[in-house]
Amino acid sequence: MSRSVSIQLPEQQTDARPTWARVATAVLFLVVFLLVLQAPVDMTKADPQGALLTSHAIVHTGHLALDDYPELANPKNYKFREVQGSVFYALSFGTSVLCVPVVALGELMGQDVLDRETERRWQRTLAALIVAGLFTLALTFFCIRLDFLPALVLAATLVLGTSLASTLGTALWNTGPESLALMGGVLRIARHRMTGRDLSPWLLGTLLGIAYFCRPSAMWPVALIMLYVLLFARRDFWKMLAAAGVWVVLLVGISLRETGEWLPPYYQAVIQEQLWDPWIVLRGLTISPGRGVLVFSPWIVLLLGWALLRLRRQMREPLFWGGLAGFVVHVLMMVRHAHWWGGSCFGARLLTDAVVALAPLLLLAGTEWRRARRSPSNYAVAGVFGVLALFSVWVHVGQGLYEPQTHRWNRSPSIERDPLGAVFDWTYPQFLANEERLRVREREWELRRRDRLAIG
Description:
Blueprint: H1 19-37, H2 51-61, E1 80-83, E2 86-89, H3 94-98, H4 100-108, H5 116-142, H6 148-160, H7 163-166, H8 175-195, H9 201-214, H10 219-232, H11 237-259, H12 265-268, H13 278-286, H14 293-296, H15 299-309, H16 311-314, H17 318-334, H18 358-371, H19 376-399, H20 405-408, H21 419-423, H22 435-455
Antiparallel strand pairs: 1-2
Helix pairs in contact: 1-5, 5-6, 5-8, 8-9, 8-10, 9-11, 10-17, 15-18, 17-18
């Protein structure tokens, strides 16, 4: 009989919250939901456009094929593909399967997602629910060790100060349900580690399975969470694995039934041939003014700096190395992505789900700061973090959700023509885009184009 290894942190405490805190959490859920729902930036015509259409097809035909919607599903559009004479949504069908009850319920209410405006409205509503759900889970997560107010600050920083808000709030991206499931999984792990609560392996496995069912990049954080369970809660490992395996079997079964493929190409492309200079891509994903995660969310720089300073002290803490490895591995995997700038989007869209991995690091750093002796240097660090967090929230909410010109930035000129030129342009960074700056940018670009034509 193998025994579960349990190494507990000192000062264990339950994360039970008083009634007022639960009421406040419910109110904040509603506030974040409305904040995201009312935002003018709308990306529902981008990659997610085929998700609810596929849900509609499942409700009415029992299949993923979109052959009954020739006007809405054109295989010449990158969002769709043709297999054996039938047209399918080219991205993950996991979100579509999960949304089947929503679409069916909508039809009972007279809401048909074949109508473009209805489909847009449902996408935005689901997106707002996801972001509000992430905020609530993050707040619950940080309340494991922190008082309500500091937990609220960290939850707002993690969700509203990153692409969890600026990307997931604009449409029903498959990263949304994936990130929600991963956040739920991280919460279960942290409660087990810090309070000794039951891991709930069946629930944990279900969350991990759903994450991968929605998006293939979830394989890295899923693997790290499973490794934690194997090392520190071995008795629960096989239950968790069985629950997650149900979703993998469902993924493979649906794919074989519908297209004859073991896995959709969207999953097979998770590891790609290196097409770009990896150092250029790494700079683009981290420190560029167009897609750099450390530029759009500079509080992460401070957090990673703390992590480097605490490497030797914290390396025996699985939440520490799990969070750090989850973020770093995800970034390195995206370096191999052929379309690493993520098309027409805001900031580091392809690193959105990597942000969830930072939650344990943020909790450990916050806990250490709370226990530390109060000194001018500690207050200075808190002040710097607060300024960077406020800036990040302004970038992702004020600009990413409420300034439509930040998305026009991708088209004037098109980022697809010269991704490196656009991404590394510090003269007109995306997060500062507004109507006046874009007007000047377009005029300068047109003058340069004319000069090139004249020289040619």
